[in-house]
Amino acid sequence: MGVNEIVTDPSLLPVLRTSAETLARCQTLLSLLEPSSSPVLSQETLLEVSKQQKLVFSLLARLRGLSRDAILRVRETKQATAEARQEIDRLHLQLQNLYYEQRHLTGEIAACESYDHKYLSLPLIPVEEFLALHPEHKESDPHELMIARINHEHAEREKLEQARQELLKRKQALIAENKKRKDDLANLDQDLERFIDAAKPIQKIFEKEY
User: Fold this and answer.
1) 3-state SS, residue 166
2) CA-CA distance, 180 to 183, in Å (whole number)?
C-alpha cells in the first residue's frame, strides 16, 4: 500500500507532493555530482548543480514550513479530539446516571404497583351500584372514581357509626329504665311484706272474733 493510499488528509497532501518533488530534485542533484570519466565538472554542469541546489534549498524551506503547519494542525486536532473525548465521557456518564435513575424509578413503580394497599380490601359497593347512586361520576377516570367510592364508603360508615351510637344510647337508657323498674318492684315487694307483717295482728283479731 502506497503512502498516497494511507494519507488521505487534504492538508497533508501538499507535504507529500513537496516531499516527492524534493526527493526528485535531490536525486537529480546526486546524478549530476556522480563521479564520471572526467574528474572536473564542466561549467554547464556546475550551473545546473547550482540551480538544482537552489531548488532543493527552496523546497526544503517550503517543506519545513508545511511540516510546521502540519504539526500545528496535528496539535489542534489532538486538542479537539481531547475535548470531544471529554464531552463524550461526560455524555456517557450522564447517560449512565439516567440509566441508573430509570432503573431506580422502575423499581419504585414496581414496588408501588405490588404494594398491598388497604383500600383494595375495603368492602366497597360495586361500581354499577355506586354509579346508579351517583351518576355524576360516570365520566370520571378510574382514579377519581375510586376516590369517590372510598369517600362514599366513609360517609356511609359515619352514618352507621352515628346510628350505632344512637342505638347504644337507647340501649343504655333502656337498661337504666329496666334497672329502675326492678328496683321499684323490689321496693314494692318490701313494702308489701311490711304491710303484710303489719296486718298480721289485725288478722289474728279477726280470726279470734270469728
Assistant:
1) helix
2) 5
